[in-house]
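TL;DR need structure tokens for one chain.
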Amino acid sequence: MSKRNVHLIQVNHSFGEMAFLPYSVGMLQAYCHRQDDIRDAFDFQPFVFLREDVRSVVRRMERPDVVGLSSYIWNWEYNRALAQAIRTAHPECLIVMGGPQVPVDSEEFFRENPMVDIAVHHEGEYAFADILRARADGREDYAAVPGLSVRSEDGTVVKTPDRERILDLDELPSPYLDGVFDTLMEQPYRWSASHETNRGCPYSCAFCDWGSAVFTKLRQFSTERLTEELEWFGRKGIDIIYNCDANHGILARDLELAEKLASVRRKYKSPAQFRTAYAKKSNDTVYAIAKTLHDAGLERGVTLSMQSMSDSTLSAIKRRNIKQDNLGALIRRYREGGIPTYTELILGLPGESADSFRDGVGKLLELGQHEALLIYLCEVLPNSELGNAYYRRVHGVHTVRMPLLLAYVTPDEGDVTENFEVVVETATLSRTEWESCLAFSWFVQSFHCLNLTQAIALFLHAHRGLAYRDFYEELIQFAASGNSEVLGRVLHEARTIAKSGLGGSTMGRVVPDFGNITWNPEEAIFLDLVRDKEGFYSEIAAFLTELDATRELGLSDRLRADLVAFQRASLVGPGEAADSVVCLGHRLPDFLSEAYLGESPELAHAKQVVVLTSGRAFADQELYALEAVRYGRKNNGLRRTVAATTP
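>> reply
TL;DR here they are.
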């Protein structure tokens, strides 16, 4: 008797030559391969891991008996379309869907997805193996398998009891060490690999559902297994490791793993990067891990996430943050160690008002987070508390479905559109306020964090006490006044993008001259402006003159000119030389370097010639966009530093 075919599917977008190893379904296959009865009954076919045309995928399938689809926000609609195509072509096939995007409340799920037979909740390794056993012995009594929702032939849904969490994670073999991905490694991709060192999360943030594992006890894979996997990554030339922990650094042994990874990098010259979500409360262990990885050339930025600076918001979302008094000290500590950090905020959280959001942005800049402030939209995940109907009623949550903003991906009109559910109104934030705050967030990220006006705002804050919030609100007012062609155009575009999102359209943008890829709105705004630095800084000079008069800042003509000249020279632009020279009448470099570190300097009047350098030039505009903007925005890739000053 021939074996039955199993097809496991975990698709993701590829970025040029880069692709993701399908770790989640690899774990399923590795576990099932260790079970003699399953191995005797089933053949596992090659993974489907690239986002191909669904018709091509189905045509390639040979006698599929069981199909398993791993689902999350970036492939949910694709998986639904593929499942429907499989059902049409192979009506007797058993279609199983799992992953964090599968809702625990499964009645509505099966009404919307009648092509799916079984939904797996939470961890899938044991559940999928039991499904295959039931399929193989002909009983097909899936209702006896815990951790599932099953669609019966009469259309009713049976939800089985929850399955206990897997306590001994080393019962699950590694897909890397067991050779599950060996055939894939022969394909010509730069691979990204997931590395899961533990499961669970001790926190219960209302907006989050970390793999349906929130508020659960941490369970660990053995250190021996993990170090062997790190060695495998180096030996196989993995390009990027994505750590899967909810709070990397929460365990003391995470430093040991970092030291092992650093030694692997030195030995094999790979991986090139390591990315993770660090523990919510940064500590000495997190710093030591970051320093170890930074010294090895692996660390692109350490998360110092806040999500909100408002106490009422943090209470509403059940979030515990780094204390604000400690955040500034942490930023300075990492900066002194030469380690980039980034801080995340979320727009649209319950309890957040327009004022508290704008104040929070300003506060973070005051604390010294100048480059890497990343502001995201509040998204509703199916199994999060924010997705609960009662919670949404209490907090007046209203949402809009819009296309998922897939930054750095080449648009494909023939592809299945992925959507996400975005909070655009709450009891404390109207839609109009949401729209205004969104434009404000883009202006701060584009102008300040991407270094269009960072030095000017920093100087006015340190020397004249002008709040960062006030500076950028005044800039937006100037752009809206009709006295600015360049800034007015950009503000109009920002408002157009925000309205398109409210209307359910995409907010990603392709910018001519910078490659056929989609950019985040703040990056698209920046790229639009940096093409015309002369025109832009001419308008910034006019804005500064008006701001000086309105706010009675008492700036001399020479000081205003110096500020604009230094700011312009400090910004690396496409097609420019690595070095830039500027003549000043004030010792601005000394003042700004001290202000940047949170000190209170004095401004000296003295003529000097300043040489600034970026270390490299970007003659190619597409390369500039990728290297300086995409990869460099967290670590000063857009800012020239002072190389020399002479009287």
